[in-house]
Amino acid sequence: MNITASYTDLYQLTMSQVYFRTKPDGRAVYDYYFRNNPFNGGYSIFAGLEDVLNILENLKFSSSDVTYLEQHGFERSFLDYLKDFRFRGNIFSSMEGDVVFPNRPILQVEANIIEAQIIETLLLNLLNFQTLIATKASRIRHSAKSETLLDMGLRRAHATGGYYASRAAIIGGFDSTSNVKAAEDYDIPSSGTMAHSFIQSYEDELQAFRDFAKIRPKNCVLLIDTYNTLRSGLPNAITVAKEMEDNGEQLLGVRLDSGDLAYLAKKARKMLDDANLGYVKIVASNQLDEFVIKSLKDQGAPIDIFGVGTNLVTGKPDAAIEGVYKLSEYNGEPRIKLSENIIKVSLPYKKQVYRMLDKNGMFYGADAVAVFNEENVERMEHSFDSNKSLELTRFEHEPLLQQVMKNGKKVMPARTVSEIAEYSKSRLEKLPEEYKRFQNPHIYKIGLSTELKKERDKLVLKHKF
Ligand SMILES: Nc1ncnc2c1ncn2[C@@H]1O[C@H](COP(=O)(O)OP(=O)(O)OP(=O)(O)O)[C@@H](O)[C@H]1O
Ligand SMILES: O=P(O)(O)OC[C@H]1O[C@H](OP(=O)(O)OP(=O)(O)O)[C@H](O)[C@@H]1O
Ligand SMILES: O=C(O)c1cccnc1
């Protein structure tokens, strides 16, 4: 997608015009984090980073952006600055695909304050959405176990969000997408079956199947529920599968898109097996999500491929992750945002986050947030309850925030979407099962180093009325 620097909220520019006049050389550190896992889940999958970095490397205001802003009251000297605008800051981040948790920095931007301000909206827009969808995909993958997952959501997505949703779905564990543009641009596998309209356009279902199989025999999946699944669609598909065998070809599968999917899949499997077509796969679709897929598996439905659309790409039922971007340092001095709601008080300073690993390299269930260069983080304190703390010396500490951009240039090797998905899978394998269950998952602990807590509390006192 062609994104220019005007992909931002107006207030970022009005504030930036003031910075331009009053503190053009100010240096800021901002934290990106969110406050709750989506779907009442026990974890989230961080996604969208590579897109953000690629866009930031080339981010500019176009001449029409500048003309628009000129017509909306921005002053000449600031417009001249925008003409040469580039993001030249540093970014420290969790790796894309990692398992992440609320209320700890996932990414930090360290940059000139104008640059850091202008990119806020773009960064939140891309990271919040892809993280939501990758997390949904990961939950669907958890239910589907090792069966194949196909993203079919583009038509139901929130307009061009579908482009990024398809990428995030692969990161979260999907195998392929029906979305041709995303598959082409991100080099991810594409696949698909056929629509009811294709069969409706013929007088005869069998002829529709025959034509399709003849012209497109490779990866051919026939949709069998247009008229009657067991009396018409399946018998016709079996006829075509046998004809394909005569030509040395194999029918890949049949798709069920309505009715009781467990009942129909069992019946279809039996009829296919009885016809010696044990290799023909059963594909199911129709408003699937992690709960329906889990139920279908529990019912013993012999479904090999699940096609998921609406519930995946819209992140249903959670419309968004409420990720935020908060100033934590300005010109080397700590900054805080207070709130009546104690959980919303922000964390000052540029920081590092350490993940605690047990003896087997599994995630113990705790991330400790510390001041960036703090050494020997031996204890983590509960953010607000001074009676709760955890001794950390028995764990291996894994620093999670790595520098991924330096002076506006990416400093980590590019990773393909499949590599990010592989990484994500390997990270999720280290997370104990109790954090992955859908109902009342175990709560992953996030704590502050003793030093960070002391500094945060000092600032709270300083600003309290
Ligand atoms: N065996 C099953 N167990 C649990 N949920 C199922 C099962 N079979 C289908 N479902 C789900 O139940 C819902 C059925 O929705 P609905 O009644 O609208 O579909 P339908 O009437 O079969 O299809 P359509 O309206 O497209 O002809 C879907 O979300 C589907 O995935
Ligand atoms: O149910 P979802 O999870 O959103 O999955 C995508 C749905 O989109 C298609 O239906 P649609 O009626 O749009 O087209 P069709 O003619 O191919 O059935 C497909 O058959 C699925 O039912
Ligand atoms: O390939 C399919 O079967 C498909 C693709 C998009 C939406 N519904 C179905």
Automatic annotation (TrEMBL):
It catalyses: 5-phospho-alpha-D-ribose 1-diphosphate + nicotinate + ATP + H2O = nicotinate beta-D-ribonucleotide + ADP + phosphate + diphosphate. Gene3D superfamilies: Aldolase class I (3.20.20.70), nicotinate phosphoribosyltransferase (3.20.140.10). GO terms for molecular function: nicotinamide phosphoribosyltransferase activity; nicotinate phosphoribosyltransferase activity. Transmembrane segments: none annotated. Pfam families: NAPRTase, NAPRTase_C, NAPRTase_N. Signal peptide: none annotated. GO terms for biological process: NAD+ biosynthetic process via the salvage pathway. This is Nicotinate phosphoribosyltransferase. It comes from Gelidibacter gilvus.
